[in-house]
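User: Working on a comparison across species. This one is Multidrug resistance transporter from Paraburkholderia ginsengiterrae. Can you predict its structure so I can line it up against the others?
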Amino acid sequence: MRSRHFGGALAAVLACALAGCALIHHNGTPYAPIPPEQIQLAGDIHLARDGWPAARWWTAYGDPQLDALIERALADAPTMVVARTRVAQAKSDVELAQAGTGLQVVALGLLDREHVSANGFIGPFARNEPALGLTGPWYTEGIVGLGASLNIDIWGKQRAQVAASLGVHNARLAEVSAVELEISADVAQIYYGIQTNYQLIDLLEQSQQVTAFAVETHSARAARGLESRTLVEAARAQQLAVQRQIVAARGQIKQFRESLRALLGAGPANLPDIEPVPLPKSQASLPATLSYDLLARRPDLQASRWLVESSFDRIDAAKAAFYPSFDIKAFFGVDALHLGDLFTHASQQINLIPGLTLPIFDGGRLNANLGGARSASNILIEQYNQAVLNAVRDVASTGSRLQDLDAETQLQTQKVQAVAFARDSAEAHYRRGLESRLTALEARQPVIAEQVALVSLDGQRLSQEIALAKALGGGYRAETPVELKPR
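Assistant: Here's the predicted structure for Multidrug resistance transporter from Paraburkholderia ginsengiterrae:
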């Protein structure tokens, strides 16, 4: 009978507690994630090869110098150190949230020297009557023992807080991969910017040799009265134009090296020399479809997705705060008004205190917290949706630009071959004594100019290839692509 009465009383208490809870007014409406049909490329964007970037996509170029630079940047770059530190911080936040879910035990020690008030609720102890056990008004109280507390997570508030912290930690891990991708792409872009300028300088120096010979030849003819000074100055102007281009290319290399130094965190004397190498052939490829594969392969999108998941857990925690919370506190130890009696059997003390906290009127604090959590979640969802659209745009724009560059490169290659015919003809006439050496050398200038244009196109193509690898997420791949479902 007593058991049934106790059970009925407990049920009544719980019913009253739930009925007395603060009411949810500001839950709000979750925003929708981006639909799959918007994660697609236009049908007219395609490249000669299909596929996603490899795990270490830059190694496909077969350049040990580039491999070493990227490995060094990924190990030492200041931005990588910051990203890894943020992961460590997020891990500490997870451990802190998990620490609040278990049993908490502390050791207590208290020494209290007090003067008892004769008019207080223990007024009799203020008298000094040893026969009655009263030795007031001064006492030295001692307490030694263990205190424990346990929050009973009935509504899942603490579990949701832990899950939210784990979501942020996973986001920080994905952000490390995003930073790695950013750094590797930047290093590759700068490296091939340097190599492109090396190729340009080599061609321009060939052109400079031609212009120097032309200036020398026209000057000699003008000195003998065979030509006007106008031809000398015209040749000199061409020579100065080529020299200016060489100076600009060398200045560009210096700027690239300083950018590379900043990426690597290198000092003024420990940046390795970069030797000229031929520009690699095209490695670009584009998958036939993007869909949710793009979401799984872009680390920045995965980081954004984890932050959205974390925001859902924060909403769950905010909802759970409307319901009663239960905890149990306990104490086991000794307590005595006289230190001499502290460690006697009679001074033992045990406290067991179940507790219930019921939010009824909170001035709107809980609803404001829930509304803020929902609004923050909706903002993250919209930011995620925009990031997905931006990712598709990046792939589309770089893929389309590569298409155009492939076509331009083919046409430019044909143009170089066509111009080279005139050069070969002039050199053949020179070898037979039908043309002067100056005419044969000057016939090289149009070919060199078109070769400069072709090298520039190759440099742009490499830059776009690297940008495409970055837009496709590099070698990153999440375990499973997860579709966002707002709660």
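For your comparison, note: The domain at 103-152+325-358 is CATH 2.20.200.10 (Outer membrane efflux proteins (OEP)).

User: Helpful, thanks.
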